[in-house]
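To whoever is on call:

I kicked off a structure prediction for a single chain this morning and the downstream step that reads the tokens threw a length-mismatch warning. I double-checked the sequence; it's 112 residues and nothing unusual in it as far as I can see. Pasting both halves so you can look.
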Amino acid sequence: MDKSKRLKEIIDEVFEVNEKLTEENENLTAENGKLKDENRWIPLDEELPEPDKYILLSLENFTMPLIGRYEVDDDEGGSFYEGDESTTLSEQGLFVNAWKPLPEPYKEDNDV
């Protein structure tokens, strides 16, 4: 085989590998964006959580996130509560600014 033919084969292989890597990079970038969206804090002015589900709460005046819930009041307003407490966070002087769903509980992987 002459050198120019071999060089063309190498160039074609490089272009093929480059196309596959570009496609894989695009797929990983899209997946990364999806994971970022799933794991981001959701500001209250953007969306309220589903009532009566436990969620992770970010507070504007406390450094540690809390596990709590959102409950709709009789007047169609709503309040946040820590865990199973019956006193609202605002009654305790704590103010929620964002929330996110809790991760799924740990499950042992028996396939290993």
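Update from on-call: the warning came from a stale cache, not from the record. Cleared it. Sanity check on the structure: Residues 3-38 form the longest helix (36 residues).
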